[in-house]
Amino acid sequence: MIKNRLLTTLITLALATTPSTLLATEAKSPNPESSSPQSLLKKKVPYSVVGVFGADTTFGAPDRWVVPIARVIGYKEFGTLDILAQADTLGVSLQADYRTNPSIGVKPHYDYIAHGDYRHFEKTGKRLRKQEVKGNVAAVDLFTTFTYDKFGSKLTLSNGYKWYGSQDQTTIPLPSAHRVHDLTLDASYQNLTTKEVVIKDGVDTAVQLTLQQHGTTETTKRAFAMLGYYNNSPTDYNLKLEARAGVETGSDLQNAWYLGSFISRQAPLPGRGYMQFRNSQFIQTQASLGIPLTGSLRAEPGASITFFPYKNIIPNAVQSDLTHPSLSLTLTGKIAGILPFGVKYGYALPTSSLSASHEVFGYIALAWNKLE
Question: What's the pTM?
Answer without folding.
Answer: 0.84
